[in-house]
Amino acid sequence: MIGRGMMAALLAASALAGPGRAWAAGESVFPVAPDEPHAVTVRARGDGRADDGDAIQQALDKARDPTGHGIVFLPSGRYRITRTLVVPAGVRLYGVGPTRPVILLGASTPGFQQGVSTMIVFAGGDQYQVGKVPVPVPTVVPRDRIVRDANSGTFYSAMSNVDIEIGPGNPAAAGVRFRMAQHAFLSHMDFRLGSAFAGVYQAGNVIENVRFEGGRYGIVTEKTSPAWQFTLIDSSFAGQRDAAIREHEVDLTLVNVAIRDTPVGIEIDRGYGDSLWGKDVRFENVSRAGVVISNEKNVFTQIGFDNALAVNSPVFARFRDSGRTVEGKGKAYRVASFSYGLAVPELGRMGDYATEAKIDPLPALPAPRAPAIRDLPAMADWVNVRTLGAAGDGKADDTAALQRAIDGHRVLYFPAGFYKVTDGLKLRPDSVLIGLHPAITQLYIPDDNPRHAGLGTVLPILQSPKGGDNILSGLGLFTGRVNPRASALLWRSGETSLVEDVKIMGGGGTPTADGKMLGTLTARTGDPVTDGRMDAQYPSIWVTDGGGGTFADVWSPNTFAQAGFYVTDTSTPGHVYEMSVEHHARNEFVLDNVQNWEFLAPQTEQEVGDGPNAVSLEIRNSRNLLFANYHGYRVTRSYHPARSAVKLFNSGDIRFRNVHVNAESGYATCDDEGCGTFLRASKYPFDNAIEDLSRKLVVREREFAKLDIGAVDRTIAPPSPGGAKVEKLEDGFWSISGAAVDARGALYFIDRRFQRIHRWSEGKGLEVVRDHALDPVNLAIDASGHLLVLSSLGAKAGVYSFDPDGPKDQFTLIQPTPVRAGSGAKTLLPVNWWNNGEFSDQLDHKSYRFTTLAEMFARDAGTPKAQEYVSPDGSVSLPAFRVWQQGPADHTGWRWSDSLNANGLVGGKPGERLFVTNGSENVTYSGRIGAGGTLTDLKPFAHRGGESVAVDAQGRVFVANGQIFIYGANGKEAGRIDVPDRPLQILFGGADRRTLYILTHHALYAARP
Length: 1009
Known about the structure:
Helix content: under 10%
Distance between the termini: 58 Å
Structural class: mainly beta
Radius of gyration: 28 Å
Number of strands: 78
Largest sheet: 24 strands, mixed
Strand content: over 45%
């Protein structure tokens, strides 16, 4: 995101143009090529007539260096292509010259007439080292070319200062496919689309200062490859035939975006929700609806706006399913705030669905606001640090040369290189530091640096002065592996300051000066050379002493630091847009004595080895804060229960909007059974979204649209007790699940971490039935009273059986056999499922309709299994669900299947109906058990779902989803049971089958509803 166009002026100018008028060409933000020896320059005709595709592709392929990163310069010109360009992972393409270069698709170019065909595809690497490409990109021209899509391991890729133009006769054309993970962007681009399908098909990370003119759509996108948020900043749309943006599940965040002359502003696809948040969005001449909202009464539908403006746009929001509308007020109006989705009324409460719309008429729209991301200085002011004595070779100590450069020059340009720093660098109040690629343009501290050893106050690589007007852009900062006093950035600059496109090195995606790569799948800490030094440095980015400003597209995953983003003692406004903070052992984000900050699309992730105890967001002594489109994610491989994503201490006046606390993901891979994608949900997301430690109250809802936390000294009435009395039977477990009940009503369950199978009965209480190292995951009971055990041990997992009262050294290993027809055995199925379309495109290229989540669930649940595991007495059948493996084939790898993922199993005879829950929709279904372990005739039952379902003798349905919700057989909510801990599995047992056993991570409860 190098350089800034005059966005406000461009938006004002665009408002004067009619739908059929072309906009003026965007300003080139690189009027000359930066002095970058690392860059590869495209050598092509650029006359708009010759086919320049091969020349551009050769430059892109050549640019990737041994670290897997590169820079390409495309000089001014018009470059016609006739086939898809593929940008390798980690490569950045910059237009350079007095005018923006244009990549042109000529009129009626073969291959761009049907389906969706993308001009430029950003590719990914072989993240899990599977050799093959499991899901080739389906939008490549020619179609027989095999391209690996950008994926959750694709970082740093970018394109800037390049326009896209699509000639007539290409109705299937899309400009760019950009399904990125972290720290990637498109910026300073115009998409002149004409009659094309879209400008961007599959978006990710950040798009900034981009204009879309014409086309059926400006952007069409599903979720990003790692399911992170997508943020669109300082951009505009005009003249789209159907909608400016068509999307679902992409967690769209809009900041200063203008949409005009189109029927629909933002359309969310049928059958889907999204976490959509818009700040300062303008709708001009939007005839049908500013936003079309689908999938009502679903927790994944979270829609919010702050300060939206509209003119000649009579309907602000239209609800697809119900037909309901939220009308504007007058010709011009302001939407001060809008929210739709699950609203949590207060700490300690569960939520319900609500619509909030505060709309006021205006005499006219105000002028467009200033850009959210400020301009960089003109290139004429840039001074190359290499000309001032810095070596950047990874060996020479550049500290003195860089400090002299900072002292003597306002704007410094850093060519790619590793700049060794052994003492802190102090910025001037007006210092601006610029690079083009953070992965390969780093300031770093060598390991065991004497100035950073032992006890002492923080000594950062860079520190800015109080109230400074500083900018950092395009740089990487690495504090080394063993440097206790180190911090990457100590920031005291003022509200107009900017930190953008900055990577804090450490963990995944980190090239290093010494050649020791950080971040592999097999090293579960995310760093194989930590030497036990996790959580042993000061915070990576520390904003303090009145610091503030804008932080955009920043990635901070350094495991060595105590926190990734740490803000203390400031009331200066701060604006955080699309920041990823990950892989810390203790805290990701920390705020202490902070006011007047907003965090839009912040994302955290905790890995297996480094993050089992980490807190996503900790807020102390703070107020007047906004968190919107917040993601608190724990990797699916997690094994350790965690209590709360957000922890509050003595804090209030906080708005949470569009909260997503999760632990599910997917990946694409190949094995001896073929290639495909696998979606899985962990049993170990945070139990609670938010916990107020001062008040001892939690928010159990993990997906919601709105929660306002009032003043810290307010009085909160205690919640009304819900439902039947709950009794704690046992506690002290690591995490229990996989339970089953025998004919006498005794409960069997697994404490998986310690590989124990327990029994609990009213007569004997708690017993240990088995504790052999056989990786039990889920249990069932056959007609003879023997346990059937699903185990994760072995490449394809396995099943065994034993008599719980028999000899401890005996069990029967059960081999899978072909499914029997008409056996009459009880079929076992997962009680909870997770299924969505991650990785593979879900758009039908003929109808242009997306497959819905409900259709995907029905398809997969209705697919017969070829084999089954049959209990020795023949009474129970467990379908052999396909087992996917991630990582090494030995015991250090991870294995998943629908049955291994489940909190438990439910069963019935073929033809019977049973209840299951689909967590990817948060919907509870009933379905009919069919041949081959299928579940057919699926019917939505309740818009609550997630962990488990149980049915009592009266036909009442009990759903575990934060608390236990009770539904009558007609699907109407009939009550609730509140449990001290989050219920994970529920099932009826006891001698009369009326005791509801409730399994939480650490305790076993019971109720008599």
